[in-house]
Amino acid sequence: MNTRVLMYSSGTCPYCTMAERLLKAKGVDAIEKIRIDLDPQQRGEMMQKTGRRTVPQIYIGDTHVGGFDDLSALDREGKLDALLEGR
Questions:
Q1: CATH code of the domain containing 70
Q2: pTM of the model as a whole
Q3: Helix (H, G, I), strand (E, B) or coil at 1
Q4: HSE (CB half, 13 Å, CA atoms) of 37?
Q5: Helical (H) or strand (E) element with 43
Q6: pLDDT tens for residues 52-75?
Q7: Concatenated DSSP letters of 13-79
Q8: Which of 15, 38, 39, 82 could form a disulfide with 68 if both were Cys (CB 3.0 to 4.6 A apart)?
Q9: Domains contained in the chain, number
Q10: How does pLDDT run across 25-55, given as a tens digit for each residue?
Q11: Burial class of residue 29 (count of CB atoms within 10 Å of its CB; 0-12, 13-18, 19+)
């Protein structure tokens, strides 16, 4: 997959781990991670961009997917593959 995947995460977040596992199972080779626990300024940026406080916050290309539940729902609806393929 060549579509850029960006994930705001923290080191202790089980949902971040589950999201990464799902994305890798879908063939995503690289996930650009921004650790908000290591750089608190990034939390503010994430909240401004997404309007949410919790991690993970996932972007596929320019699309804000949301958190793990949102990512999982896209997969169940059969829409995740197309988004990862840039369609």
A1: 3.40.30.10
A2: 0.93
A3: coil
A4: 9
A5: helix 40-50
A6: 999 999 999 999 999 999 999 999
A7: -HHHHHHHHHHHHTT----EEEETTT-HHHHHHHHHHHS--SS-EEEETTEEEESHHHHHHHHHTT-
A8: 15
A9: 1
A10: 999 999 999 999 999 899 999 999 999 999 9
A11: exposed
